Each structure stands twice: as C-alpha cells, then as structure tokens.
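Hi F.,

I've been meaning to write this up properly since the lab meeting, where we talked about keeping a consistent format for the predictions we share between groups. The idea is simple: the sequence comes first, exactly as it goes in, then the structure tokens exactly as they come out, then a line or two of notes. No screenshots and no reformatting. I'm using this chain as the first example so we have something concrete to point to.
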Amino acid sequence: MKIHLVSGGCGFVGRNVVKRLLKTTQDTIFVVDDLSIGRHPKEWFEGEFTSKMNKDLEIIGSDERLLFWNGDFRNLLFYMRQDPEYIQHTYGVDFEKFNDVFHFAAIVGGRLKIDGDPLMVALDLSIDAEFFYWITRHKPVRVLYPSSSAAYPTSLQTTEGAIALSEGDIDFTKNLGTPDMTYGWTKLTGEFLAQIAAKHYGISIVCIRPFSGYGEDQETSYPTPAIAERAAKRESPFEVWGTGKQGRDFVHIDDIIDFIQILMDNVSDGSAYNIGSGKLTSFLELIDVFTDIAGYKPPVKPLLDKPVGVHSRYADMSLVQEKFGWTPKISIEEGMRRVYEAQLKKVPACR
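Output, unedited:
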C-alpha cells in the first residue's frame, strides 16, 4: 500500500495537506505532531471521527487511513535511525518505505514568536538536520521541504527598496544576504540541505517558498484571522500592529496545496519556488477589505510598540508562471470573505 508521512501534520498547513490527501487518494497518511501548536485530528477530521489505539499510535476514521503519532518528530526520527523498520516492527504497519513525505514540523507562531523567542525558533535547525539525514537513509519516493519567504534577504524588503522577490535572489554560489531572523536562517539552511540531498543522495525533493498563507482554520496568532476576528467583533478603533503600511503577499491555503502537488510532480532537484499572488497588500488595505465585508468603517489605531518584521514582502511569480503556467485561483476578496465568515461563526452575538 502507499503510505505518506506528514510531519507537523496537525498545524495549519499540515492538516490542510492531510485533508486534501484523504479526499483525493485512497492512501494511508501517517501524521506526526506533538500538538504544541497543532490541533488534534478530532478537531479537524472531516467525516465521522472514530479512533482506536495501537500502542501509542492512534488509528482514525472508519477506513483507518489516518494514523496519528503524538510526539516530537525528532524522537520518531531517532527510533527510525535505531531501527529503520521501527514503524513496521512496532505497529505492524505493512509497507516498505514512505511514498510522499511532507515535512512541516517546525517551531512556528507568527511574528510574536519569530521576534520574541528567536532561539526557540532556532530549534528548527535540529529538526531539519535530523530529518534530512533520515531521508538520505530511508529514501522515500518524493519529499516536500517547506521553506519560507523569510529566507529572502531583508535588504530587499525595506521601505525604500522593496521589490518583488524572485527565486534568483537566493543563490548559494553568491552572497546570500541576511534572511529574516533565526526562522529565515533555518529555512535557508533547509534549502541548502535539500539541494545536497538531491545532488549527493539522489533524493527527489522540491522546496517551496510560501508567502503569507492564510485560510479559514488558521490560528489567530497569525495576522489574517486576527484581523478578521476583530472585524467580526466590529472593533472600533481598529488596532493594527505598527503603522499598518507594511505589506505582505497573501495567498490562500487551497492555492498553496494545489501548487505543491504540481511541484512534486515536476521538480526533483531540490530547487525552490515561490508561492504567492505577486501582489503587495498593506495591512491597512487588509483592514479595509475586512471592514468592507463587515459593513462598517472604524478609525484605525496604530500600535507602534508591536513587532512588525520587514516593511514589504511580496513574490515575483514570473518564473512560476513561465515554467508551470500556475496562478492562484482565489482572489484576496473571496479568500478574506471566507476567513471573515469563519471568524463570524465564533462570535454569534456580533452578527
């Protein structure tokens, strides 16, 4: 049987990938997450939730295609290094090797985490190093490594010099510049390891550089659902971190997953591709979108003591369009309306 591994599979991107795989394949999905950030599958599993335990492995769903291992991914990697057939021997799962591996396990948490606890975020170096070593031994059929737009040099994202960031702005044969905090450094390092895994070990792997991904079930520690929640509550004055003039490239999670599938089918050499809309939207503009949807126009209150990150970050999507003919399908207006309606359901008294 085909079995796919999704590390960090209960986080925002991971669980959406898992749900897509369960919908579009008949394969088994092995999810690893310590739930420090992610949500247990009982909160997002689509369909009737049933569960039984095989030792410490939770088997979910009537068709038993979702397997959930609750723990630190590094612990599982250690067990699999000690015994390459640890999963088969321990749980009786009948497979030779993982087909697709999606590596979302990471210390994440929005700007507050990136700026507020940078050395905790640096633990991603540990997670990734052990992961890349393991795939060179296990040799799964295909691997996805999620990098980040934070890997791009911050010098290209200032008030004065903001440009659309293109894949060629990161070139490991030249000066790489300075990425965004420890999170950017870990993702840049991961891209380098991905290229080594492909070139020296023959691993089929592709990297993605998603920009500001968002969706209906994203945690409110991220700006898009947080702003949507405040609009649903009809906050006035409407608070914004910083001046609100800083901008990002917003792309819906459904579009991200669509393009991930295209990339895994077509790229194997460890190279990285942007996933964005190619449009810069300021947080003031985003507030306008949500308050238009909510039907009111509050004054905006800047919070100048809050962390804001780089001033402008958006994608040059020309390489992606030329090579793959891909553009996102979901407009910012449609996507943000979905997010707003999801937040509105949580505050029924404000309807």
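Notes:
The chain has a mean pLDDT of 95.
Residues 76 and 82 are 10 Å apart (CA to CA).

If this format works for you, I'll send the rest the same way.

G.
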